[in-house]
Design brief:
Number of helices: 15
Order of helices and strands: HHHHHHHHHHHHHHH
Shape: globular
Radius of gyration: 41 Å
Strand content: under 5%
Number of strands: 0
Distance between the termini: 109 Å
Largest sheet: none
Length: about 300
């Protein structure tokens, strides 16, 4: 029957063909069922192997995609955390440098000329204030509205503060606000770096930062008190010939800006508390009349100099 279906081909050629000779050569009787079973078994094995290859291909493809995705994800390290926001990292570095230079000026443990550390601290604080001011107001404009917003920013105030005292006679009181502000702001970013390093890393520094942050309000009040008492120190230095005649007027402008600050009301609060304290002292019967009169005149004079508070 196979010879007839071959379409009249030569039987010898048909039998000699490799495709047919291996499948339809004269088999022993009773082996057809075994051959069919073997064929079915071979087909099952081939299907299983094909399925395994496809699953392996899928697994390898999934693994390749996972590796590719893992390759694009950057490891969570301190350097990558700092590079993710370069401006914040630069602010942290300048603040740390300000803290170090201020400490070395107040406590000259390394020797040398402390005036150099005084200038470096103020220059670093000026750089910090300029970067922070660029963050708050990135687009510079030559308009009255822009300069009005500019002088409302605390970073502009301390940029002016650094420029006022940078090239003058060194004043220790001028370094204290710079040092404390840099320390407070650097602690926040340092805590973020410690969180990247691990929840249990450098527990001693974490505890110091927590204690410092608990005293944040008291530190800000002390900074405001220092800003206020720098003014009589400058007036005394002017009469002693250690500063310019114009320095009290320039610093008065800085102090008036701090008084009207929107984000830091502690200078205004300290002025109010000191006025109430002096008025309470002058109201006592034991206060001499001359001192009472002088204190009331000083309060009236300072009240006239105080700028209006923006609503």
């Amino acid at each position: 029957g196979e010879l007839l279906r071959a379409g009249g081909r030569n039987a010898g050629e048909y039998l000699k063909s490799p495709r047919r000779s291996s499948q339809h050569w004269s088999w022993p009787v009773g082996t057809s069922k075994r051959i069919q079973k073997r064929k079915k078994k071979t087909l099952r094995m081939s299907d299983n192997s094909a399925g395994g290859d496809s699953n392996a291909g899928n697994d390898s493809g999934t693994g390749g995609n996972t590796q590719a995705n893992g390759g694009t994800q950057r490891p969570n390290t301190v350097l990558n955390f700092m590079l993710s926001n370069k401006v914040e990292a630069a602010l942290w570095l300048t603040r740390i440098f300000t803290v170090v230079c201020s400490f070395l000026f107040i406590f000259p443990i390394l020797g040398g000329n402390p005036y150099g550390f005084y200038q470096r601290a103020l220059i670093s604080n000026a750089a910090t204030s300029a970067l922070r001011l660029h963050q708050r107001l990135p687009h510079f404009q030559l308009s009255r509205e822009f300069f009005g917003l500019l002088f409302l920013e605390d970073s502009c105030h301390y940029l002016m503060f650094s420029l006022i005292f940078m090239n003058g006679y060194p004043i220790t009181m001028a370094v204290i606000p710079v040092f404390l502000f840099a320390l407070l702001h650097a602690c926040n970013y340092t805590k973020n770096i410690l969180n990247v390093m691990g929840p249990d890393s450098l527990q001693f520094i974490r505890k110091l930062i927590d204690k410092l942050q608990l005293q944040q309000i008291n530190i800000l009040r002390f900074i405001a008190c220092t800003e206020i008492f720098i003014m009589p120190a400058i007036i005394f230095m002017m009469f002693a010939g250690k500063c310019s005649f114009f320095l009290p007027f320039v610093y008065y402008k800085f102090l008036s800006l701090r008084y009207t600050s929107r984000r830091n009301p502690y200078c205004r609060t300290l002025f109010t508390e000191m006025r109430m304290t002096v008025e309470h002292f002058t109201a006592t019967p034991s206060c001499p009349g001359i001192i009472r009169t002088a204190c009331l005149k000083a309060i009236a004079f300072i009240s006239r100099l105080s700028p209006p508070i923006p609503q």
